[in-house]
Amino acid sequence: MDTHQHQHQHHLPTSPPEIWHTTTGTPGSPTLLLLHGLFSSHLEFSALLPHLTPYYFILLVDLPGHSNSQSATLNTTTTYRFPEITSALATLIRTSSPSGTAHLAGLSYGGFLALSLARAHPELVASVFTSGSAPWAGIQRFVATRPRLLWCVIAPPILYVPDSLFAWLLKQMGLADLEAMREESKRNFSNELMRAGFEDCAGSGWRW
């Protein structure tokens, strides 16, 4: 098998959102599209890449409103919503996957997007793996659909917990240093993105 690995960066215009992406891995292997969680970025998968690149041609993205896909021209009433993001991801697969299809792996928010993409464009999806994307019900769905309450739950850990305390908690849990990803989460946080993301996850149709 050809184990040559490469990496290119692109900025793919779609309508309406723009999705920055980078490719890495083994050309000629199956395409794997990795979808990160809300307020995160493609850096979320850094520790996994050495285990995946020998076997896949990988598409890494920063979803609209996140890191390299932030833009002053984003329309927050449409750009952050699932139908528009799903359409942009479908275009990305058609134009950037050599086979025209992709395996999808998504975490949390990215997992809900993977499910929505598979439902809207099954012809583009070879398989779906998600984590943290089970249908929401009960208190979880109640909080997700109430922006003020949601802000009180989500914002403090991201914006106000001291970096030293965050690093200490990670060490106690035996986790790797996530300083770079934490900084991206702080930069990506916005009320508009939080509200749109949680509303779409709660109302995406994947319910008990």
UniProtKB/TrEMBL annotation:
Q: Which Gene3D superfamilies match?
A: alpha/beta hydrolase
Q: Where is the composition biased (Basic residues)?
A: 1-11
Query: Which intervals hold domain AB hydrolase-1?
Result: 30-137
The record's region (Disordered) falls at 1-23
Identify the SUPFAM superfamilies for this entry: alpha/beta-Hydrolases
- Listed Pfam families: Abhydrolase_1
Q: Which InterPro entries match?
A: AB_hydrolase_1 (IPR000073), AB_hydrolase_fold (IPR029058), AB_hydrolase_sf (IPR050266)
What GO terms fall under cellular component here?
membrane
PANTHER family registered for this protein in UniProt: HYDROLASE, PUTATIVE (AFU_ORTHOLOGUE AFUA_2G14860)-RELATED (PTHR43798:SF33), MONOACYLGLYCEROL LIPASE (PTHR43798)
What is this protein's record name? AB hydrolase-1 domain-containing protein
Q: Which organism is it from?
A: Neocucurbitaria cava
Its lineage opens with: Eukaryota, Fungi, Dikarya, Ascomycota, Pezizomycotina
